[in-house]
Every structure is written in C-alpha cells, then in structure tokens.
Amino acid sequence: MIASNLKKIEKEIPEAVKLIVVSKTRSNAEIMEAYDTGHRSFGENRVPELTEKYDQLPKDIEWHFIGHLQTNKVKYIAPFVSWIHAVDSFKLLKEINKRAANENRVIKCLLQFHIATEAAKHGFSEGIPEFLNQEEFRQLKHVRICGVMGMATFTDNQAQIRNEFIRLKQIFDSLKSGYFAENAEFREISMGMSGDYQLAIEEGSTMVRIGSNIFGPREQ
Ligand SMILES: *Cc1c(COP(=O)(O)O)cnc(C)c1O
What we know:
- By secondary structure, the protein is an alpha/beta fold.
- The chain has helices at 2-12, 28-35, 47-56, 74-77, 90-102, 135-138, 158-178, 197-202, 212-215, and strands at 18-22, 41-44, 62-65, 83-87, 107-113, 143-150, 188-190, 207-210.
- It is globular and about 50 Å long.
- The two termini are 20 Å apart.
C-alpha cells in the first residue's frame, strides 16, 4: 500500500513541487517501503526519533527536520540533516550556523511563519523578521535561507486555508523582492500536508509534506 500510495501522489503533484514523505512515528520497515520505490526525501519532527532513524537507515536519505526545534538539540542533527523547515528565531538560526560550521557543512533553512489562527503554532508573525537587516545575519556562512514554511489552521474551512496559503505566498514574495532578490536559492514555499496539499499547490507551494496519505492514519 505504501509504495502505491506514494506513486499515486508523485504522479499527481507537478514535477516542480518537491514531495517530503513525513515519516514521523513510522517504523524503519515502513520507511524502507517508500525508500525502495526510489524516494529519498523524508521528514521528521522529533530529534531523538530522527537521530535513531538516521543511524539505522540508508545514508543517502535526505532528512528534513520539519518540527519545532529547540536550540539545545541542534547539535544532535547538525552532522547530517539537510533541511530545517521551521526556523522561528534568530537565536535558533545562529545556533544552526554554529553547529553546521563545526561539521564543515551548510544547512538549508526555511523561515517559519505563523499563518494559522491557532495560538499554539510557532513561527514569525506578519512582517519582516528584524534580524534580516542585521550585519550579524549576513555573516552566517553555514546556513542557507532557501524560503519560507507555514502550516494552515486545522479546519474544514477551505476558504480560510486558501487565504492562509495566499498570505504565506505574499510573505515569500515580499521577502524575495526585499531581501533575497539576488539569491537564486531563495525559492521554496513549504506548505501543504495530507489534507490540504492540493490547495497549497494551487497557491504556489514548492514543497509539500505528506505523511498520512502515504502511510495511513497515525496512531498518536
Ligand atoms: C506531521 C506533519 C506533517 C504531515 O502531516 P500529514 O497530515 O500526516 O500529512 C506535515 N508537516 C508537519 C510540520 C508535520 O508535523
């Protein structure tokens, strides 16, 4: 089932949109079913679970950390993580830079914006994060800001979800023109999960993060 679900979604989404298979809570055997179809990009949201899977699974997997990341845990994933989707403070970005420098690596980062009405979600709120104007930010050589990430409100209201995605696209556009116009790598909009990825793609998503539609419902 996993392989055929994955193939179906891969066929459905445009080629320009990158699929991150969200493997949190899934066993190594389940992940290997997806891996064996040729898929290599996987997303996790807990540090201990990710480090364990990194140790046990093939080393050509491109790991995306998609959850809220605590500063004191960056060091555990810095040796191998390719993407960090949810950078929500300058402090965290500086820590990622420091740990990536120790490993002689560059880690691709997305700035998370709070687009949902729910209070619990992390991320920068409206407007341009202050640190982008600081010289200290320009000195960071071991992180690459590649775009933005956001999560829509958990609701059945399609119009609301669509508006939240439109808002994230607008934030991306204003950051692109104001701060990253010269930076060809600033081009990603990570939005869309199992329930809303078609909407997200219609509104400009370049990365969708999909778990349940591939592996089935999560138990937790
Ligand atoms: C769990 C998770 C997903 C995937 O959710 P599904 O509904 O299972 O597709 C996507 N993004 C983030 C940040 C997640 O934590």
